[in-house]
Design a protein that fits this description.
With 144 residues, the protein is an alpha+beta fold. The protein is 38% helix and 24% strand. It contains 5 helices and 6 strands. The strands form 2 sheets. It has a 4-stranded antiparallel sheet with strand order 2-5-1-6, covered by helices on one side. It has a two-stranded antiparallel ribbon with strand order 3-4.
């Protein structure tokens, strides 16, 4: 089971305030612990929404609309993520509970969401096989 720990943005992260060195060190130790346990798939912080781009689809079948950041709803902003693969929902929660406060000072908030697996999206065996092949191809390219 794959889960994404979504680190919510704060007014500081949106203002481009970088984490304190102590917090960077704590997050590095946490990521190393995830890696040693063999559950870490990816982990990154994201730049403020001021450098972001939002693409929306306001009309069914219509052209996408492109809007440059910043975006105003800070509570909806994602400041970073960690992607893990674990055996259960409970294990994912345990790992999420061990993450240091991602912004320090009691402002951090993490949303934990399970990632869909191909077989959960459609019963179409041919599509599932194509999706597995694509994932293997992408994984192979990452290793090169």
């Amino acid at each position: 089971m794959r889960f994404m720990m979504i680190v919510k943005g704060t007014t500081d992260s949106e203002a481009g305030v970088l984490p304190a060195p102590e917090l960077i060190e704590a997050m590095q130790r946490y990521n190393e612990e995830l890696a040693r346990a063999g559950v870490l798939l990816a982990a990154d912080g994201l730049q403020a929404s001021a450098s972001g781009i939002r693409i929306s689809y306001p009309e069914p079948g219509g052209k996408p609309k492109v809007v440059d950041g910043p975006f105003t709803e800070t509570k909806e902003i994602i400041a970073g993520y960690t992607l893990i693969e674990v055996k259960s929902r409970e294990e994912a929660i345990q790992w999420a509970m061990r993450m240091p406060d991602p912004h320090g000072g009691g402002q951090g908030q993490i949303e934990l969401r399970q990632v869909f697996e191909p077989e959960e999206l459609t019963p179409d065996a041919e599509w599932q096989q194509r999706e597995r092949e694509l994932r293997r191809q992408v994984e192979g390219q990452r290793r090169e």
